[in-house]
Known about the structure:
heterodimer, A: 114 residues, mainly beta, six-stranded mixed β-sheet, 12 strands, 53% strand, globular, B: 114 residues, seven-stranded mixed β-sheet, 11 strands, 50% strand
Amino acid sequence: AQSVAQPEDQVNVAEGNPLTVKCTYSVSGNPYLFWYVQYPNRGLQFLLKYITGDNLVKGSYGFEAEFNKSQTSFHLKKPSALVSDSALYFCAVRAYSGNTPLVFGKGTRLSVIA
Amino acid sequence: DAGVTQSPTHLIKTRGQQVTLRCSPKSGHDTVSWYQQALGQGPQFIFQYYEEEERQRGNFPDRFSGHQFPNYSSELNVNALLLGDSALYLCASSAYREGTYGYTFGSGTRLTVV
């Protein structure tokens, strides 16, 4: 069975500082990994995905994530946080084979302080 | 190019009633997945429809049922509503043969059961 762990319920960072939101996963075989962001009372917006290839994936709004197979991690990063990055972030995984559904973590609330 | 459209945006129902939520997928997508997001939680997979058939199902009771129409739009029905069914219901569409590319989510339907 697939699963995702986001170990931090909340991450606080000062504006202009780098941010990291952690994610580890468990899946049989190779994973497809995703990050989504959710603003209040809204659906999920796609940020980036890892399918194959380069371990460093660049996405929307200056976000990037690094796939680490040995540590089964896919941490989300941004070099310089903005107040507007404050939102709920979800990591998701699905198995490589078949059309299996996305499995989400419980989310991490990012708060960027001016 | 229209994204995923969900209706209604909000609704309030009484315990024991039945509710139908609707979803129109993104143009070019033929697969619809439904998720339930309870307050403070990550989205939980309910089921997925492709070619008008339920293809996969998460751990939800039979009170949750669905349908997909020939134009790929979908409905989620919940019978005998419980207070615990209060949540944001998210619809996600994808192209079945491009399943690697994740989902496009709608903004969701906020269901409140009183």
